[in-house]
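Continuing the batch. This is chain 6 of the set; chains 1 through 5 are on the previous pages. Same settings as before, nothing changed between runs. Recording input and output for traceability.
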Amino acid sequence: MTDMNENRGGETETSAARRSPLAKRSGGDAGSRGRTTIADGVVEKIAGLAARDVDGVHAMGSGLSRTFGAVRDRVPGGAKSVSRGVKAEVGEVQAALDLEIVVEYGVSIADVARDVRENVITAVERMTGLEVVEVNIAVSDVKLPDEEEEEPERRIQ
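Output for chain 6:
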């Protein structure tokens, strides 16, 4: 008879002793202990920034939301909303997004929408690990070259 007796799991006492005490207690990979939740607003910010990075996107949101946003931006302490024009539904492993954009005149709307969709999916999946199941894009306006900017100049400097 040897001094290496088998334990219940078929492993010898010698190999069991070589493992660290931490490995015995942990029960698995440290990354799988616990749960991570990601708020809708986090995904909305990521998607909003990714959409704005695409050439041909002039602004995000409908005309009314952009107007309210311009007023909010002028209030002291008010921050620019990067999630304007973005709505996200986030589950445990998947996300779906709705975006409302304003495109610049002269660009191919189909190409801009495709590029926005690809950029948003890439950014959200890379940063969150969620699977993006759909990105719906509504083009609410076209920015004409001779139109005034949505935010008029301030009278007081």
